[in-house]
Fold this sequence. Notes:
Elements: E1 27-29, E2 52-53, E3 60-65, E4 68-74, E5 80-85, E6 94-103, E7 117-122, E8 128-135, E9 138-146, E10 150-156, E11 163-170, E12 173-178, E13 184-187, E14 197-200, E15 208-211, E16 214-217, H1 223-237
Antiparallel strand pairs: 1-16, 2-5, 3-4, 4-15, 5-14, 6-11, 6-15, 6-16, 7-8, 7-14, 8-9, 9-10, 11-12, 12-13
Amino acid sequence: MLMGNLVSSAGRGAGAAFDIASLDWDGLWLPSYAGSPWVGAASAGASSGRNLSEATNAPSVVGALNGYNFARADGTNDLLKTATNATDFATSTNFSGASLCELNSCSTNDSNPAFNDVLFSTTGAVRYLLHFRNASGTVTARLAIDDGALKEVTVGVSLLTWMLLQWRGNGTNIEIRVNGGAWQSATGGTISGLGFTISFANLIAFTEIDAFSLMLSKQYFDDATFDNILEWHRTESGLAL
């Protein structure tokens, strides 16, 4: 399922102008994935040692993308979870995130995000998540928060294609984009409760998805920072995102 245009790339740290660990990450899961736990990498934030784990049904180790292994969730029972609550990864108003991923299938299309395929989500209740819907072949990625009412912003995506999803919120707006595309924006708000752990590839449904990286921060990153995150992923993955 390794689709996407390849470009030449040096390995991590070799010729890369930007150090992803220089940012204030609260959750930072990088290649190469080696199974559970997906160890939280060190950064300028609190990400070091904040692992994603699953004792029984962890995503498979698949390789390689530009020499790195990545996680493959099978859409049947694979997932990973944090040990601590979402308050460690977002504030009620501010957050940023990114993931280089490939959605391998999607058949969910429910107005309630809890019943859709997710990249990640707060467990137990819909509070902060990125989910996918497939409406008669039109697939969208949707950043959603709950501030007493569901707030959501949408961007079109493709199945079976590596894509860098980037998202952020600042209490006023929530935004999402794919690769270097335009930011899609909607009215945000204050997340009503973050007292739940974070789950990768599962809320109610299980998601069939590959993940090269997953990054979460309590900070609201500006455009220039997200452009650096994009360039880092281009270098590391060898993809022309």
